[in-house]
Amino acid sequence: MSLALGVLISGRGSNLMAILDAIDRGSLDATVKLVASNKLNAAGLERAKERGVPTVYLDPKPFTQETNPREAYDRAMGALLQHHGVKYVALAGYMRIVTPTLIRMYPSKIFNIHPSLLPAFPGLDAQRQALEWGAKVSGCTVHLVTEGVDEGPIIVQAAVPILEGDTVESLSARILENEHECYPQALQLMAQQRLHLEGRQVHILS
Ligand code: GAR
Q1: Does the beta carbon of 6 lie inside 6 Å of ligand 1?
Q2: Same domain for 91 and 1
Q3: What is the pLDDT of residues 81-112, one digit of tens each?
Q4: Residues 131/111, Cβ–Cβ less than 8 Å
């Protein structure tokens, strides 16, 4: 099956580029139907446009008038994704908490990548958290999105050693290289229908 993907970003979009590159190489059976951002100046939007991918900026501000701004925003985002024929959603550096409104529109069909070995160091600044904790190993995690932040079933992880003298920048760069491998790989497992969800465990079928 070919995945009809929507990718949500807030920043530079290097994971988005890794996904597009994997599609071009033929190692990921997917089409990116839409790249959407909550940030007007997200560099990833420009990079997506250059690659001929439809993009949209959805401004959160008008939704602040609503009774439930986050739900209203996600309802609009979900409608946009559906309008573009998106069947699976990849969060790629999307720095907004996704509400149950969007999760219910795409149940077990939203992926996220996080720069730590979850459940260690969820939330913001995961690489800094790992360094400050004194961890010797960190890494990245691709997981399905559930209502708890960074809590969903884990699909793929890669470990990255923390070296003496590492800074947030040096560690982030090494983790990022692994993210660029893991994200397309996890999406390809979904495309191949090899993910079997049982409770919070994801079994990978051979
Ligand atoms: C990546 O390191 C990703 O794991 C992280 O933001 C970066 C986005 O980079 N995501 C989170 O921290 C989510 N909690 P990119 O825009 O170059 O893909």
Answers
A1: no
A2: yes
A3: 999 999 999 999 999 999 999 999 999 999 99
A4: no
For a ligand 1 pocket test, name from 179, 182, 183 the mutation site with the most ligand atoms within 8 angstroms of its C-beta: 179
Q: Say if residue 118 is in the same domain as residue 197.
A: yes
Minimum-distance ligand 1 atom for the alpha carbon of 42: 16
Query: Which residue shows structure tokens 């550096």?
Result: 93
Do 103 and 118 sit in the same domain of this protein?
A: no
Q: Is 129 in the pocket of ligand 1 (CB under 6 A)?
A: no
* Atom 3 in ligand 1: residue holding the nearest Cα: 93
| Domain interval for residue 70 | 1-107
Q: Give mean pLDDT, residues 125-141.
A: 98
CATH number for the domain that contains residue 52: 3.40.50.170
Q: What is the mean pLDDT of residues 14-31?
A: 98
d(CA 134, CA 161): 12
In the listed set 61, 76, 107, which residue is the last one of a domain according to the structure?
107
Which of 59, 77, 107 terminates a domain? The answer is 107
How many Å lie between the centroid of ligand 1 and the Cα of residue 115? 7
Would you say 152 and 112 are in contact if contact means Cβ atoms under 8 Å apart? yes
From residue 62, alpha-carbon distances to 11, 28, 69, 94, 96 in Å are: 21, 36, 9, 19, 16
